Amino acid sequence: MRMFKYRLYPTKVEEAKLEYHLEICRQTYNNLLGLCKDSYRESGQTLRQFILQNKIPILKKLNPCLGEVYSQVLQNVSKRIADAYTVFFSRKKLGLRSGLPRFKKARKYNSLTYPQSGFSIKEDRLQLSKIGSIKIRLHRTIQGKVKNVTVKRSLSGKWFAFFASEIEAKLVEHPVKAVGIDVGLEKFAALSDGVVIENPRYYRKEESKLGKIQRSLSRKKRGSQNKQKARIKVARLHEKIENRRIDFLHKASRTIAKTYRTIYIEDLRIGNMIRNRHLSKSISDAGWGIFLKLLSAKSSDSGGRVVPVDPKHTSQRCSACGTIVKKALSERMHICPECGLTLDRDLNASKNILKVGLERAELTPVETEGSTPHIERQLSVVEAGSPHDLSVGSSQDYRKKGG
Question: Among 25, 133, 171, 228, which residue carries the largest CB count within 10 Å?
């Protein structure tokens, strides 16, 4: 399954219709969720999806406005509630933090899903049942067979269409058999073959500007038009930062997945790491969690795999002789007193990750042989000077820069 995202440009009339349909779906969601909460409170069990769907005709009799929304869009509301309870019970069973689904406040229900039908594309228009024909910017061709469409309103007030499409996976010939990757904050990632991906720090670069407009927002009178305008400014800057980060992570993960067949990476507990108030902002800015998900999905699509490795002592152990060399987090170079190996701390960790991964998989060193003559050119997927530039270089280049 592949998701294709496109920008929508509704007129004021069409936008009003979309807002109206969102509000009706929100009310339906809250009504059905109320029934689920009553059932769970009385019997300890919630209502199944098909039972919730059977409640919709009853709600239509009580509120005829529900008939103005496409029937399958309303049915999808019941699916969302059922899925939310499924996640709740799954996390509760595993002993993880979990919370019951909550009622949606005004403007907190932001999307409509057409699960099977009721939509079509004609030239540059997206036809939605009971809403109308909306202008869409098809900047690329939709591949495969479209299964469903979701129309979403962003916090900045923009509208987007998401097409979930089923396509055939394309296996690729990987130039390199295996690699170890160490993610970090000083450098985004260090690969065991010497490739370094610099950390772009998109949030940090915009932090000063973001603080300025957030302070302006806090001074506006609650409920005024000026406060709404200021809120949109903040949302648009957050959206800009997120778009840059996601673009960077997509490009980096795609190139790595196409280059290496088996990818060994640290099995990090990111949720625990962000509890550190000194590092939480930088860790969230790096987007490790999203990177790992994208890397795993893209590697699987191309016929490769991502293997998590225990991160214990990967930064402290010498990759040449195995000696444990204690280092503070501020020490960026690994200097082994036993064998004299001197190299970048993150590169040493990535070599240890690869070694541990191969030992666990019972592979021989011969299977890891392979050259990466084009990896630096491939990772630099955008023009120099672009904010999306990955700034890749070897570990020797990094030391010359004084890193």
Answer: 25
